[in-house]
Structures are given as structure tokens and as C-alpha cells.
Design brief:
Elements (H helix, E strand, L loop, with lengths): L2 H34 L3 E10 L3 E10 L5 E10 L4 E2 L6 E6 L4 E8 L7 E8 L4 E3 L4 H7 L7 H28 L7
Antiparallel strand pairs: 1-2, 2-6, 3-4, 3-5, 3-7, 7-8
């Protein structure tokens, strides 16, 4: 082969090889950045107690790799702006990797349908909203016959919850701890 031809091939292939390597390096760096952020999974449910009435139970799980400091939680209502539950419900708790916290808030069962969403604010002033608040609508309009929409939403939510639980269990097992049943 001609040495000039080999030299030209090397000159042309070196920048292409550098471009490919830098693309993969950038992709890996971006993936690490996304994985290292704190991630929260928020689950809501209505708890009924015989003597005390109805409670809104908000469970917060840290499914990310970094600790997250939770400042406060609140509710969004359909008819007003953001309102903090229980006169500035301050949590001020750090959730380490795979930790969880439960918040109980008493609610008036007759006015539960006014709640639009529940949210959590972390140390970066990032709002984390509950993914699935349709259970409130279902509870406030419950006539003991589940509708097709309710069944469809429940199926979708169950699939999402399955994958979140799986990710939570993987994180706990990586840490060498025994996972809680959630």
C-alpha cells in the first residue's frame, strides 16, 4: 500500500474516532448526572378511623441515590391557590437513600373532593407532586359500584406502582438492607 494513502486514512479516521468517543463519554456523564439526583416517590391514600374520622396519608419515599431534605408539604385546592396543610406543615427531615416518612393530616370527609393535588417541597425548592390523586375523587363519589374509568385508572396506577416498588427494592438491596413491604 502507498504510505501517502495510509497517512490520509489515519488523518481522516482520527477525528471521527474522537467524535465517537466524546459522544459516548457525554452520554455516560449525562446518565450519571440524572441518576445522582434525589428522586422522590409520593403516595397518597385516605385512611378512615372509627373515632377520629378521615385522614389523608402521604407517604414519601426517597428512591434516588442522594439524600433529600424535605421542607414542608401542602395541598392544592381546585378553588384557590396553594395552601399549606395544617398551618405550614413543616417536616424538616432528611431522607437518605431508600428512607421513607409518613404524614397524616385530618381532613373533612365532606370537603375532600376540593383537594386537587398534594405536593412536597425539598431543599432546592423543587415541587414534587403526587402522581395519582384520583383516589380522592373516587372516595368522595363512591357509590359502591366501581366504574370502568376507576378500574382503568387503578390498573395504570398499579403498573406504575409495581415499577417504583421494584426500583425501591433494588436500591435497598444494593445498600445491603432488608426492604420494607410497601
Amino acid at each position: 500500500m502507498n504510505p501517502i494513502l495510509i497517512e490520509e486514512i489515519v488523518k481522516l479516521s482520527t477525528p471521527i474516532l474522537g467524535l465517537i468517543i466524546s459522544f459516548f463519554t457525554g452520554t455516560i456523564a449525562f446518565q450519571n448526572y440524572k441518576e445522582n439526583n434525589g428522586k422522590l416517590f409520593i403516595q397518597g391514600d385516605i385512611v378512615l378511623q372509627e373515632n377520629k374520622g378521615a385522614f389523608l396519608k402521604i407517604t414519601i419515599f426517597n428512591i434516588g441515590k442522594r439524600p433529600v431534605f424535605i421542607k414542608y408539604c401542602g395541598l392544592e385546592f381546585w378553588d384557590s391557590l396553594n395552601a399549606i396543610i395544617s398551618d405550614n406543615k413543616q417536616i424538616n427531615k432528611t431522607l437518605n437513600e431508600a428512607d421513607s416518612v409518613e404524614i397524616f393530616e385530618q381532613v373533612n370527609f365532606d370537603e375532600i373532593h376540593k383537594i386537587k393535588n398534594a405536593f412536597i417541597v425539598d431543599h432546592r425548592n423543587k415541587y414534587w407532586r403526587i402522581d395519582y390523586m384520583d383516589f380522592i375523587y373516587d372516595v368522595s363519589h363512591y357509590d359502591k359500584t366501581p366504574t370502568k374509568l376507576y378500574r382503568r385508572n387503578k390498573k395504570i396506577q398499579d403498573v406504575k406502582l409495581y415499577f417504583r416498588k421494584r426500583k425501591y427494592r433494588k436500591t435497598i438491596i444494593k445498600l445491603g438492607r432488608i426492604p420494607k413491604n410497601i
